[in-house]
Design a protein that fits this description.
The complex is a heterotrimer of chains A (407), B (407) and C (227). Chain A contains 15 helices and 12 strands. Chain A is an alpha+beta fold and 407 residues long. A 6-stranded mixed β-barrel of chain A has the order 2-3-8-5-7-6. Chain A has a two-stranded antiparallel ribbon with strand order 11-12. In chain A, a hairpin with a 2-residue loop joins strand 6 and strand 7. In chain A, helix 4 packs across helix 9, helix 11 packs parallel to helix 14 and helix 13 runs antiparallel to helix 14. Chain B has 407 residues and is an alpha+beta fold. Chain B has 2 domains: 204 residues, no CATH class; 176 residues, no CATH class. Helices cover 55% and strands 19% of the residues of chain B. Chain B contains 15 helices and 14 strands. Chain B starts with a helix and ends with a helix. Classes of the chains: A alpha+beta (407), B alpha+beta (407), C alpha/beta (227). Chains A and C meet through helix 1, helix 12, helix 13 and helix 15 of A and helix 2 and helix 3 of C.
């Protein structure tokens, strides 16, 4: 009966109830929307970055992670990659050779970062194939191909098919080799479009004397962006002692730190919005208490205990919360839907990655983070109940005579 | 008007809890907007410091082809006379010439690397970008025939202050220029590209590249931000053959971030608006409901409907003022906290986010301009008054007889 | 054995700067089955007296005993329970719970007592039938006339078979025909069910049928007339 009374009390004041639960709903919808969007953005960013610049687990020469010294290379990389594949057949394994060097045309020379990749494997995980302006992605087995950014091409005054010379330094020796421009790309990030060169791994390997089949990293990748629990140990087993084996979190601490900071900022904002919503409910419930003092006095006259009054008002708060949360949940989902289906192309806002040297997908899509949506929805119901605590306790303290006398 | 204001004010304090809670919600909303503005302002400031103050300056002058090609042959013609002409302008504070090129570097050991090569006027650069403050070890350039190197290059070459740096460049006359310089300092400019290279006194650079007294770049700092376009126009008129660009033309990313911020702020203002509107409508509607009888009395005393509306609008306006004051108070408190203590956004030890190849300072101190603090106040005032219209309309639609019959 | 006994009860209120002495050493006792009217001018202490008996208020000094229990020393919760189990209230302005139907309003106190649903339901139907509201159980207060609402209030007050029903000017808002019906109803309940009624009233039609009339003046009993 208390439940029924509470419900009917709310229905009796549709405007107030609507305003109070509307405040909850609006805030919750906003939180759900931004939360899903933020998660979506990070899933994408993490996924792109992990795949393009490390791997879910990555194998590197011992000390490379700290020194980032391009002289630290893993030898016999394909043998190691094959072992990893045998041990973990569900994974994709690819090798990369990352060198510093210089690219020169008859007109100009520019210091660049050079990435030697396995054409087919890299095509599947890199965003650059989608960003080609001219020419084609690297072809496996064709030697002497390079891909460069459009701005770099302008600086070198070269176009498709033109000759450029790559100079790399390895253990103090400079090695130069001619290449032909097989394609140009625009990533939208000035440092990538200016200072980044892609070439086939085998061709680049030829430039390094005295080391067989070298690679800077062997990247082990799986579906999704979460790193499976046992993967690192199993890769370590396949690799044996010597090179360092790192999980994505260890290989890309900046990325994970940036995610953490961004999410902390989000929580801060959301909790603040939640507080605003709960003050809104508190206000409405307090008002409704003042207006109903006489009615509550009568309930006391009939022998309802103070605890009964507290229960009644808490139930009202709870119902407001549930109703508002439900409404907000639905509205939040509805607002998320187009973001999940179509996304926003933020290409106009420039390509910003917390880890430099990664081409990001510019179509940002939201995801449904069910667990977080559930938590926030519950949190809002809780807020409503907490907000009704004060009015409820006040109702419990009412003196029967006083309340009967009020109008 | 006076008596209406008095009635409106006293009406507000008939339910102090309600009035306080309502203005607290709106005030917290306003405070949040101000705090966000301060935070974003601080972030933009960090970004500007990192890009404009430490590198770009207000204006840059190049050979007209240089921005596109960055070709070392495209030097500023008659640089010396351009510099003198600029220095004569009263709006110009500092003019600093630079040589921007690439070099291959080697240390005493076997290591070699390529990186940026920047020739500067040590004194001018000191005043313009305060590069001397970015020297982490050793000292800034003072004499000729010495070099300072970036911390990344130092690590790569395993080179320390007191060591010797071998530089090899393609000189403009087609010869290979090479020279050994003592390393007097190691800097951390926060610019990934520059930190992987070295800086030299201008004249040494000109000699090495066999480029006479040519320079690639003139960086201009004007007396004030507002003077930038004036100086740009007059310089373009005086030297139509040169490319004269403002920092925001050179680095549109920074500008884009500012625009993006405007969108974000708008988003927050919208939320605040919605929540405030909700609260005011709620409070005033209730206040009108419970005063039905009293409003009937006013009508029966012959108060014209217009003035009843006026009275309620004054009430909502006062609520808006109260909220604004609360919000301004809390907001400024938040801002002062942020301005004095700052918030650390550390991605790596001592380093903040990386934006377009530039490492931002990790600690963000609040920065607020008064417009940003005032906009949310104006919005809340506006929303309060507009939200008062509905209850006011309801109040005048009351029939005095019916209203008086109400208990 | 008196079901209500009041000894030297005083009740003082603070009203602004002034102390209002609503009761000044009042003595009264009520026997079971009485149908008593309390009359007196405004401010003579009628409502305060009813509030003390109903445990809504406590005396400044003196003793109030209901069903052998001392009210003045009870906690708030104990007084709630006293009202629930021993006292029925009827008010001038009906005071039904607006969101509940006639049936639910009647059941409400039984619910507070923890009676089973079947028992509640049956008792409420019975009593609503007795007060002549058969067929209107599902209506909410707003859908009933003033007289009908007050019948629901009577039904609610006697549903728990209370020791005493306190009625504060129950007829003040009713027209004379409805009033006569309601008084007849309460009289019948008194005679047939043995419910004890205590009225505060100015209404001569109640005073005419009352078997005991107590007159208050300045917070004391000025006359006590049994008929």
């Amino acid at each position: 009966m208390i439940f029924r009374m509470a419900l009917r009390n709310l229905i009796r004041r549709p405007m107030q109830s609507f305003l109070a639960s509307g405040a909850v709903a609006g805030c919750l919808a906003l939180i759900i929307w931004t939360c899903n969007f933020q998660d979506g953005a990070w899933v994408l960013l993490m996924d792109d970055t992990i795949r393009a610049s490390a791997g879910h687990v990555v194998v590197q020469a011992d000390g490379y992670q700290d020194a980032k010294d391009s002289n630290l290379l893993v030898a016999d990389s394909s043998a190691i990659a094959t072992k990893i594949r045998q041990q973990n057949p569900e994974t994709t394994v690819m090798r990369r050779l990352i060198l510093g060097g210089m690219i020169a045309s008859p007109e100009n020379s520019v210091a660049v970062g050079i990435s030697g990749v396995e054409a087919e494997a890299e095509k599947a995980v890199s965003q650059i194939p989608k960003m080609m302006v001219d020419g084609e992605w690297l072809e496996a087995g064709t030697s002497g191909q390079v891909l460069i950014g459009t701005t770099l091409a302008k600086r070198l005054q070269v176009g498709l098919g033109d000759k450029v010379v790559l100079t790399v330094s390895y253990r103090g020796e400079l090695q130069a080799l001619p290449f032909r421009v097989a394609g140009t790309f625009t990533i939208g990030n000035a440092s990538m479009d200016n200072f980044f060169v892609l070439a086939n791994l085998p061709t680049l390997q030829e430039m390094l004397p005295g080391i067989t089949d070298p690679a800077t990293m062997i990247s082990v990748q799986v579906e999704g962006y979460k790193v499976p629990a046992g993967l690192k140990a199993s890769v370590r087993e396949a690799v044996g002692d010597g090179p360092e084996v790192l999980r994505a979190e260890e290989a890309l601490p900046e990325l994970f730190k940036a995610e953490e900071l961004d999410k902390i900022g989000g929580y801060f904002m959301w909790i603040f919005i939640g507080i605003l919503a709960s003050i809104g409910i508190l206000n409405v419930l307090l008002m409704s208490l003042f207006q109903r003092t006489r009615e509550l006095g009568m309930l006391q006259a009939m022998g309802m205990r103070p605890s009964g009054l507290v229960q009644l008002l808490l139930t009202e708060g709870f119902l407001l919360g549930v109703f508002g949360a439900l409404l907000g949940f639905i509205a939040g989902l509805a607002a998320t839907y187009p973001m999940v289906e179509y996304g926003i192309d933020y290409g106009m806002i420039n390509n910003q990655a917390p880890v430099s040297g990664v081409a990001l997908n510019t179509l940002m899509k939201a995801v449904y983070s069910w667990d977080k949506m559930a938590i926030w929805t519950g949190f809002h119901v809780l807020l409503a109940v907490l907000a009704s605590l004060w009015p409820a306790l006040r109702a419990g303290r009412l003196e029967a005579v006083e309340s009967m006398r009020s109008q | 008007m006076g008596i209406l204001t008095a009635i409106a004010w006293r009406n507000l304090w008939r339910h102090p809890t309600r009035t306080v809670l309502t203005s607290l919600t709106m005030g917290l909303g306003v405070a949040f907007c101000i705090f966000m503005a301060s935070w974003i302002g601080g972030f933009l400031d960090v970004m500007r410091t990192a890009t404009v103050d430490r590198n770009l300056g207000h204006l840059q002058i190049h050979h007209k082809d240089y921005p596109e090609t960055m070709n070392p042959y495209d030097v500023v013609p008659q640089a010396q006379s351009v510099i003198e002409g600029l220095q004569d302008k009263p709006d110009v504070k500092i003019v600093a010439p630079r040589i921007q090129a690439f070099g291959m570097y080697a240390g005493a050991k076997d290591e070699a690397a390529s990186g940026s090569f920047v020739g500067v006027d040590p004194e001018a650069e000191k005043n313009l970008t305060e590069m001397h403050k970015r020297v982490r070890k050793g000292r800034w350039l003072k004499n000729s025939r010495e070099a300072v190197i970036g911390h990344r290059l130092a690590k790569e070459l395993n080179l320390d202050v007191g060591g010797e740096l071998l530089v090899v460049v393609n000189a403009l006359d087609g010869s290979i220029g090479n020279q050994v310089y003592p390393v007097v300092g190691i800097y951390n400019s926060g610019m990934l590209e520059r930190d992987g290279g070295a800086m030299f006194p201008l004249q040494d650079a000109q000699e090495l590249f066999a480029m006479g007294d040519g320079v690639h770049e003139l960086v201009v700092l004007t007396q004030a931000e507002e003077k930038i376009e004036t100086v740009q126009n007059s310089t373009t008129n005086a030297y139509p053959d040169l490319a004269v660009r403002t920092w925001y033309e050179i680095s549109p990313e920074t500008k884009q971030m500012e625009d993006l911020t405007a969108v974000t702020s708008f988003f927050f203002y919208f939320i605040i608006m919605a929540i405030s509107g909700f609260m005011v409508v709620n409070t005033l509607l209730m206040s009108v409901y419970e005063r039905t009888r009293e409003l009937g009395l006013f009508a029966s005393l012959g108060l014209p409907p217009k003035r009843v509306v006026m009275m309620i609008l004054i009430e909502s306006g006062l609520l808006g003022v109260l909220s604004s004051l609360l919000g301004l108070g809390f907001g400024l408190l938040g801002h002062l906290f942020l301005a004095n203590y700052g918030i650390t956004m550390e991605i790596k030890e001592g380093e903040g986010f990386i934006l377009n190849g530039v490492v931002l300072d990790p600690v963000i101190f609040g920065q607020l301009n008064m417009t940003q603090a005032i906009i949310p106040l104006v919005i809340v005032m506006f929303v309060s008054v507009v939200a008062g219209l509905w209850p006011a309309r309801r109040a005048v639609k009351l029939d005095p007889v019916v209203a008086l019959a109400q208990e | 054995m008196a079901i209500v006994s009041i000894e030297k009860a005083t009740r003082h209120y603070q009203d602004g700067d002034q102390v209002v002495e609503a009761l000044r050493g009042l003595d009264l006792s009520i026997e079971p089955g009485e149908f008593t009217a309390i009359m007196g001018p405004s401010g003579s202490g009628k409502t305060t007296l009813l509030n003390l008996i109903g445990g809504m208020d406590t005396p400044t000094s003196g003793r109030v005993t209901v069903s052998g229990k001392e009210v003045s020393s009870m906690s708030k919760t104990e007084r709630s329970d006293l009202r629930r189990d021993h006292v029925g209230f009827i008010f001038q302005s009906y005071n039904l719970i607006p969101v509940l139907t006639a049936q639910e309003n009647t059941e409400f106190v039984l619910l507070l007592q923890g009676k089973s649903e079947a028992e509640r339901n049956q008792r409420a139907r019975e009593i609503l039938k007795a007060v002549g509201l058969e067929g209107m159980e599902g209506r909410r207060p707003a859908e009933l006339s003033g007289g009908q609402q007050q019948r629901v209030a009577v039904a609610r007050a006697i549903a728990t078979k209370p020791t005493i029903v306190l009625a504060d000017e129950p007829t003040a808002n009713l027209d004379s025909e409805t009033k006569a019906e309601l008084i007849g109803l309460m009289r019948r309940m008194n005679e047939e069910e043995g419910v004890t009624f205590l009225f505060s009233t100015h209404d001569h039609e109640i005073i005419d049928v009352a078997r005991r009339v107590v007159t208050l003046r300045d917070g004391q009993v000025s006359s006590d007339e049994h008929r």
